[in-house]
């Protein structure tokens, strides 16, 4: 965290307008990190980071281009090639959330500098904020680091570069000059978030201009900051304090309205850490938000992220009635001593209560997603078992949860703890610190086994599940999963339910593989008479047979989808679906009633791709 004294003036919130309409282009880049795609298993969509900055730059009269390499899946070379097609570039900004994107950001900067040595390149984001001086010492291609929130800072930097002014008074900028690296004082956090210009949705805008299919969803934020102080989290480092500032419900609903009207997008993903504040004020905010959605007659679907201790069934119910369909809870662990170590200020009992409240609210289980850390360096074997069984019994586990190791971000409390309490050597600057060190040998054994088998299963071309991400992606597209443009435009309910059932089935079977690895490891560790060779043989057999079934199932389901597409017209006539059961070892059964008259009932039994209509 930068120790520089924070000062405040109105200039902190000033948009530096390009008063003389000077020519010159600003390019902002969101880099693509291949590893993030396989870890998070989320198809990438618009970049809200770029959207916020472009919104400010456009409002201040600068010509700018957003390059969303993540969405386009462009590596550093493709990205720089695209950037260099543009004329008149005077300033490039690269977003860098964490160590994962730092390497790519450096390569992009070096490729641009090789062709355009006089262009100013700044880097922003969490890692950049916490390690500004180190970045400028580490990489000569960056001219400056933009710390903290960027919406006002970027217009000031653009203005001063375009008008040839000194950078020495731009707050929250760290830059290089002949004297060395200079760190300017911090600007104050943006308290009134309604003053931030609305994001410009470049990706949606371009798709609309080209007449292509629109993105299915949009990212938004309603607040910034978190009162928590979890030891692994870097929100505090980015923002510099624990205050939470919220946009007004009016401001948020206006933006939703604009997106719905301009782009026809009706699905929203609120990315803020605390959509619901645990206070009367928080409840009033939710009430007003719902009231305004009703008043504007906005029929939207949305996803929110909240802490477990802010879940209240009544509030969630209200949100569900206004379109909430998916919720992310930062549970993090199912063991109290682990939660204490993370300084989560939340207990397992509160996590359980949150799940109970969610059940009462009527939100389906499969729409609840947990933030969960399965392994950390200081974890004991007993803690790991508790953690594992809590997750399994919650019925909400995902493969991502089950194999998740703590990613230790530079400069966090956890980063310092590992160095000072456990005497660990941190990685080279800019490299991810996903720990492979475990103090407890049992934890090390389980985690090592999971990692080894995972690697074998998904190994390119040869792993039993090497195509599995592609298979899941296909279903996500078919069912219009968040961030995917649906292939099934009309979202026919029956087709949707069937595809969703298949998707859930595949996920469940994949999870079962991980359960079997965990439980085999536990049994081996606790049964001292068992030989390691026997354990390995048995484990390999179990995993192989489960993975083979899963692989075959995805092929069977492919046939079913083909069969469905051939009979699509008939199936669409039906209006009721009684039962969808996706399991390749049983019938895949759908009972349909004809739309026009209830007299005619039609059974469709699908087995491994065959359709029999009775
Ligand atoms: S509650 Fe979430 S956002 Fe807040 S400090 Fe903890 S991990 Fe970070």
From TrEMBL:
Pfam families: B12-binding (PF02310), Radical_SAM (PF04055). GO terms for molecular function: 4 iron, 4 sulfur cluster binding; catalytic activity; cobalamin binding; metal ion binding. Residues 23-168 form the B12-binding domain. One of its GO terms (cellular component) is cytosol. Keywords: 4Fe-4S, Iron, Iron-sulfur, Metal-binding, Methyltransferase, S-adenosyl-L-methionine, Transferase. PROSITE patterns: B12_BINDING, MTTASE_RADICAL. Its cofactor is [4Fe-4S] cluster. InterPro entries: BchE-like, Cobalamin-bd, Elp3/MiaA/NifB-like_rSAM, Methylthiotransferase_CS, Methyltransferase_Class_B, rSAM, rSAM_horseshoe, rSAM_sf. It comes from the Bacteria. This is B12-binding domain-containing protein.
